[in-house]
Each structure stands twice: as C-alpha cells, then as structure tokens.
Here is the input.
Amino acid sequence: MNQSHAEQRHSHHMMPHKHHDHGAHTGHDKHAGHSPEIFQRRFFVCLALTLPVLYFAPSFQQWFGYQAVQFPGSGLVSPLLSIVIYGYGGWVFLRGAWIELHSKIGMMTLIALAITVAFTYSLAVSLGLEGEPFYWELATLVDVMLLGHWIEMASVQGASRALEHLANLTPAMAHRLASGQVEEVPVERLQTNDTLLVKPGEQVPIDGEVIEGASSVNEAFLTGESRPVNKQVGDEAVGGSVNGEGALTLRVIRTGEQTTLSQIMRLVEEAQSSRSQYQVLADQLAYWLTLIAIGVGALTFVVWLSIGPALTFAINRAVTVLVITCPHALGLAIPLVIVNATSLSARHGIIVRNREAFERARQIRAIAFDKTGTLTEGEFGVRHIFTDRLNETDALEIAASLETFSEHPLAAAIVQEAHARQLSLPGGSDFQAVAGKGVEGRVKGQFYRVGRPEWADELSLSTADPLKTALMTIAEGGESAIALMDETRLIALFGLADKVRVQARKAVDQLQKMGLQVVMITGDAETVAKTVAGELGIDRYYSRVLPQDKASLIRNLKSEMSVAFVGDGINDAPALLEANLALAIGAGTNVAIESADLVLIKSDPLDATYALKLAKATYAKMLQNLFWATGYNVIGIPLAAGVAYPLGILLSPAVGAIFMSISTVVVSINAMLLRRVKLGTSAPV
Here is the structure.
C-alpha cells in the first residue's frame, strides 16, 4: 500500500544510541582514553612476566610434578613480578573501576576488586600472614582480562568520523564574481547575496539561487533523487551537489549553519551524541555479579569470623569468593563470539562496526531500504525505446553517436546501451551542446537533436500520436525521457530509469520469508517509487521523502515495530543513526558507512539477509556463553563461601581455578561453533 512520507520534521529527540567508542555509555565510559594498542602492549608484557610466576607457583609444581629451581631470593620472584603485573596490567581496570564508581559499577569494578583483594592478600601472606597467596591466579586473571579487552576493542574499534566526511564534501574555495572579475574566495568567507560562478563538472560550494545559466545538477548524495535535476534561473542549487554540463551563476542564499549540508551534519551530530544507553549483556551480568560478590564475600567473612576457626580462614573464604565470582570466561564470553562473528561476516562481505548490533537484531520486525544505490544501482539504464518511421537500432545508433559528446548521465546511459548491444556508432560532426536542453549535430550528414522532450515543443516540432502516448507511458513509469529529433519532428523516445539490482528481488523475498516487513524509502517521485516497489514485490513504500524527513520517518516506523534501515547516501546518515539496526551499502558514502552498525561491502542487498541471520545467531551465542561463563557460580559461590564445609567439602582457590578453566574452554568452543551457521539459505537461523 502506498503511504505518504512522514510530515513531521526531524526533532531534537532522536533515539539515543551512540556510535563512538564501543565501550562508551553515557556516564559509563569504561574505555575512556584506551585503545586496542594499550591492551595489546600490556597483555604481552604481563604474559611474559606471568610465565615465571606460573613456574614458581606451588600448585603448578604439584599438578605437573616438578620442583622449581631454588636460589637466594627465589621466593621474591612471584611477589615482585605480581607487583608489576598488578600495577602495569591492572591499571586500566583500576582506572575503569574509578570511572564506573561515579556512575554504575560493572565489569571493570569486578575485575579491579578481584585483582586488588587477591594482590593485597597475597602480598600480606608473603609478609607473614598465614595462608596461601593467589599470585598465579592474580597474574592469569590480569592476562586474560587484558586479552579479552584487547580483542573486544580491536573487533569494534573506530569512533565515527562521519562529520569529518561531511565537512570535506564541499570545496574549500569558490569563484566569486565582483565587478565583472572572478576571484577565488574561501567558502567560509562567503556572505548572503554574493554572486558565484559554478563551472561545468564542479561541486556547488554553498546553497544558492540560479540567477544566470542552465544546467543539470546531480543531487543524489543529498536528496536521494537518482536522476540529475535541471536547474534554470530561479531554481535553488544545494551546496555539495555536482554541476553538470552548463555554467551556473548563483546568488548565495544560505551560509554557515543554515546550509542544507550543515543541517544534515547537525542531525548526524545530535543522533550520535544522544544514542541510547544499551548496556552490553556482559556488563549487566558483571554489575549484578559484582554486587553478589561484594555481598557474599562480606557475609562470608563476617560469618566465618564469628564462628570460624581463625581470621585467616575467614579471609581465605572471602578472597576465594571474590576470585571465583570473577571468572576468566566472563571476560572472553562476548569478545570471543565477536571475533568469530566478524570473521564469519567478513567472508560474506559484511563489516561489523558495532557489537551492540547483534543484541538489537533479534528484535527487528521490519527492514527499510533507501531505494537509490541500495535496491537500485544508482545508475540509469535504457528501459524502453519508442520510434516513429525508423527502427529501434537506427534510433539508438543516431542518439548514441551524438550523446558520445555529452557529459550528461542520461547521455552516458544511452551510449552504454549502444555498446551493450554491440552497435557500431557512425560518429557525428558539427556537435554542439545546448545548455539545459541537450546536444545537436550531424550523423551521416543528417541534422539531429537529442535532449529533453520539452525541447521539441519549444522548437515547435511535430510529434506523432504513438510518441505522445509513449511519452505518457514513460512518465507513468517514473522514467526519464530523452527525445531524438530531426529538423522537423520528434522521431524517437528513450525511457531511462535507475536499474534495479539483480539481487534486490531475491533479498526482498528472503526477508519476507523471515517474517520481516520490507519498506522502501526514496526521494524519487511517486511514479518512480511505485514502479520499483511493484517490480520488487514491496507493498509499503514512501516517496518524495526529504533528507531531514528520513530520520523522522524511521522514528515513526519504530513506534510500530523494531526497524532496521539500509542506506548508502549522505542523506541516509541521520536515518541510519535513528534506526534500531543500521546497515550501510559499502559502495555508498563514507558518511553512511561511519553511521552504520553493519556495512555490506559488496553493495549487495542480499547481504542484508545474511547480516540479520548472523546477528541473531551471534546474539544466541552471546547468551549461551554468558550462561556458561557465569552459570557455575550458582554452585561455585556457595562452595567457595564454605556452605558445605560441615560436610567436609571446601572449594579451594586451586579447584576454583579449574572451574574457571573449564568454563573458559566451554565458552571458547561454543564461540567457534558460530562458524557452522549457514547464512546462504532462506531459512531463518
């Protein structure tokens, strides 16, 4: 069913949902000032320092049946190296915990608490307190957490640079006309009512009104309109659009933050700065696990201190609870899945930019596509040829011979069609471009014109009834018409339209089989939208959607159901940020890519189905891993606290470490199983 686009303008209240540092949440920036390189460097340094600690650990000597080399001061090796590991490797977690304490405690707090208690207690034992130190548990805990966070950050690194791409879109200099002279002026120095010259092929530097000249302007990046727009005196030209074959003289009408491009930049910036607080599942679990660890650890200490055999026993139990409650596996549960998911997706041409996409994908009920460049190629092709008194091949040969000299995109489509049919072009002479009209010249000695159908009316050329009917057919199909004329009459019409991608129909079919509603959004006219939607089997579409309305439209759709949006243009960036799940077609602009959760680098809409299947499968693996990483705590925590001590069952730190190791192995194997997911089928995973 056809629905008009949303009337409401883009408001300041976008769905908050940040695309900056993946670990950054509002008030919960656990990775502030960190980079993958920091974790990588600290991991390898600490790993090297851990090997001697493991070698001298009594538990390892007992398990593997060897006697460590003894020398004067050998007992200080583990304490001294552990001080370095705690201070150097643990610093990032201590700093992260400090930040969390000012907002909401989570993974960083839990890690910092566990390593601090283990370190302090172990050091106290080395200084004379009765008990067994936790040096090797401390060292391996720091190592695994550094590894996990390194993998985590590296897999989703890349703060958005969308605004930089937007800012670089317009030229730095403009040709300003003053006293009949042309002067080069920085764009930022332009003022309202300045007069500018825009030469053929140049970008329009700023929003202006045409006061002289005629041309066609490509506004696809800004408006989503796939066909070049003819500009004459009185029309507006938008900054960032590309001028076609004619020179234009513009009067500046908007400057600075008022320009269309600046407004789109503002929409992107607002959306990025107010994205929602999507807590990663591991952080949510860690939050509750931290509270449980602190609560149970404190309770354990108090209970055993009051009834237990000794102070050392009470401290030992409390420390064991804290250590076992922060399992190694929890630090790797999500990153290991992410690594496998990103590897699998890369093989299918999908780049994962935001891990939270996997969590949101399971709720998607509708997927909206921007038409131009996504469902269509963004390039024109010849759909129909109508002729009067000459055959189709001759008409194409004549038109292509003249259009070879033209730089207009529609002309290129006619020439491309002639080459595709392997026609030999006779060539032309006396070629002349008529700005805003078309081209004229001689082919085989005969004079012809190729250009806008309105040109024939302006020249009072006759048009046969079949071609009048053909012109209406072309208009009803939303196609662009190119007319071929001789000196007296209109002799052929070419219907050109944006070419639908080969895989688009298959993608729509698969998405509908997955139970998703497919929606098409376009800046094109109603006739164009209706034709493409009909060809693809899409029931719900919105036509003539302005750039600033796309985000509002997505917001309205979100009020009905969870929506994914697939786009490629600059004008799509705010809508991508607004959607529950953002997918960018990789052949599009960097702005769209930087605003997306997932990037389809092959520009194949069918990859959107693969992306959703992968995301849902990945989310399922995340849940499973979080269960395996934390589930054993249901048994482990009570045993570590000494609940079964009266029965003679006491969970020592060494046994707790084995629990953690088993949990880590299970999590790793489960993450690897993600590679068995079949994406190239129509059945939902």
